[in-house]
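During the no-cost extension, the postdoctoral fellow (Dr. R.K.) reprocessed legacy sequence entries with the updated structure-token encoder. One reprocessed record is reproduced below for audit purposes.
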Amino acid sequence: MKPALAPMVIAALGLMGCAGRARAVPFDVLVRGPAAQCSLEVAGRAVTFQELVAVARREVQPGRGARILLPTSEVPYRCIGGAIYSLQTAGFEQVTALAPHFRPLK
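Re-encoded structure tokens follow.
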């Protein structure tokens, strides 16, 4: 019986390692247009680009990325670019823009 115990211990240790590595929840920013008046939301609260930098700076953690959520495919590039710049200025190393049809299921 002792030889069968070793594979079980190895499997249990492997599972413990996987369970200990929880993925960080991304920092989400909702971006809307038109270009003349970009609209940003974080956790349901409207923010300016300057406020986004301040809020995002508090949320930066190693391994945590930021996501820009686009409600339509017609959000102007100026709004998306401004959000990317603000998030990178805050310290996020990974910023992903998700179009409506690429949104992950909840």
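Residues 38 and 79 are 5 Å apart (CA to CA). The beta strands are 27-32, 39-42, 45-47, 66-69, 95-98. The remaining legacy entries will be reprocessed before the final report is submitted.
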